[in-house]
Write the structure tokens for this entry.
Amino acid sequence: MSMMEEKVPGHKGRAEDGKWPWMHIVGFVISIVLTLIALRLVLAHAMAPSGLFVTIMVLAVLQILVQLFFFMHILEGGGPRWHLWMLTLGFIFVFTIVAGSIWIMTFGAEAY
Amino acid sequence: MPDDTLNVSHFLVTGDPLIYGADVSIVVVSIAIVAVLTYYRKWGWLWREWLTTVDHKKIGIMYMIAALLMLFRGGVDALLMRMQLAFPNTRFLEAEHYNQIFTTHGTIMILFMAMPFIFAMMNIAVPLMIGARDVAFPYLNAISFWMFFFGAMLFNLSFVIGGSPDAGWTSYPPLAESDFNLGPGENYYLLALQISGIGSIATGINFFVTILKMRAPGMTLMRMPLFCWAILATSILIIFVFPVLTVALALLLIDRIAGAHFFTMLGGGNPMMYINMFWIWGHPEVYIVILPAFGIFSEVVATFSGKRIFGYASMVASLMAIAVISYFTWVHHFFTMGAGPGVNSFFALSTMIIAIPTGVKIFNWLATMYNGRVRVTVPMKWALGFIPNFAVGGATGVMLSVAPADYQYHNSYFLIAHFHQTLIGGVVFGMLAGMYYWWPKMFGFVLEERYANWGFWWFNIGFYVCFIPQYLLGFMGMTRRIYTYPTGMGWSTLNLISTIGAFMMGLGFLFIAAGIVYSIFYGERDTTGDPWNGRTLEWSVPSPAPHYNFARIPVVTSRDAWWTMKKERKQGVLPPGEDEIRPIHMPKNSGRPFILSLSFFVAGFGLVFHWYILTVIGFSAVAACLLLRSFDYDTDYYIPVDEIKKTEASYGRS
């Protein structure tokens, strides 16, 4: 028994969908462009370090949004409840990694 | 990036009799395997039945064989180290060789022994336990296995070609950077872990989807066996933490191969960031390998106590709590880095908190046994041996979690003893319990008890003889990763005792292996499909399970579904779902996962030695495999009813 027998919500089988996957291609191109912008800014020393950090963070958040909207079909909804649970957990973990790493790597420069 | 890595004298490792011995044995074993396969005309069988299989049970068996082989290799590494440390001022291994051995020992035991062993157990048991006919993505499952396999092969190849990695299993920069580590060893480490890591992430996704989407009708989440809950928690952890390792390793690889400066001090990078990212993965990783062991103990203890598990809901809650909290504890691996009291206090507290759900589980197992009719079979022995073992490991873990005290214990033999106590006493004991428990389901015969008992006692007692002295050595100031020590430190006796213990464990392993060989010839056949009087659905099908698992998908009405069905049958109640057999939809075998992973191996090998042509060839083959799969519409088939009936009849069932 494979997944194909089941009706996965928000997922269209190949038989009923012969159209060119525009959403995926657009998402793919946008995510590559976002990455190249970040790389270019760093290589060219385009800003002061603090400005670079902020810009890269903004680009990273945009990257997350591209993934969610173009590939993970966040708007198509209607899935089981654990979708929401897992997405929340994912956000908590991402926040933990980023905020935790920044906190740890300041080496006590903060007032605790 | 020195170009002289291309020299032949650097290519094959030379100058060490141990490695020449390994060269000879690798050649001899390879010739023997090829000769046997050719003589018995088994090449076709090997390809059709194993290399191309997408059957979760066969993939599980292959994972298990690989894990046992890697346990042997990692164990030999351990014995070599213990021989070197048995007496002061020994000249058995040179410093560099010792570094390579503790690096490969750690890497192999965690990533190429513990990981495949848990994958083996989840592949074999989870679909059968939830009443499914395979995992959600069988083709991806085969890719996972072969990615692991070729990752492991790439790593092991470093031993004879190019030289092993020697910067520890954690591979910290700056030591692991190309400035300090000239040979290809670290490249092997990075690429082997990347390749097998792809497989691990795919397995996490696969089992997450399998458990949430493929349960038999009536099996609600709260009716699932606890092992499935444990695998669900493990899968969640794998999905969320392995990408972090991937990024850390990729950045280090870019540093080494392309001369970037993510983790070098000189170029504005920061090596501490690697340590930080490594442990964001590394700490959840130890829960990734221990949670399946917890799941196995829950099944084994319930089955052999003849009772349903005590405190099922609290077991589920603590599994999930561990899965989430384990994400917030990683700094306790580097309290001494100096991140400041605020950081250390937070992570010390989170580490202590995670001991609570773990304690809950221990008490629940004890309460399950309480007033039960306990049968002390071999799997139960490993479960019973685990409890005191893990209690000590947990207690020393809480000692280590106290940040100020950790400045004393950090990187001493106290730490070594602690994590071996949890990883051997927890993971290895758990996986061996699972192996003995599910062996009849895999192969159709029970493993013989006498050898298994000898194996258990030698391994269990040897464990304490080996590692209790190491706690003391840690207090006495012996640090990890030293390759020799002078006389007069007061360490000699304890080190000798520890080495004796290590050899006792080695003997235990030999008994276990001998017991397996003996049982292949003389083991008691399991004709019932339910040799342990089990409680969960995997025991409702014949042993070994037919490749479609269930002729009819069972309908589940309660927790411990098979136990209830047996009870109902005794009372004359016909179980629901005894309707007509219908054709079964199954995935087709494919050789592509094997070829795809082999291509990754070729690409990885090219990157190790900076032979980019080989890398391009390898990745082109990978792309070709992916494209071919996209246009492959012939991926599944139906087993006709006649064939199912014939198979069922051959097991004496209708």
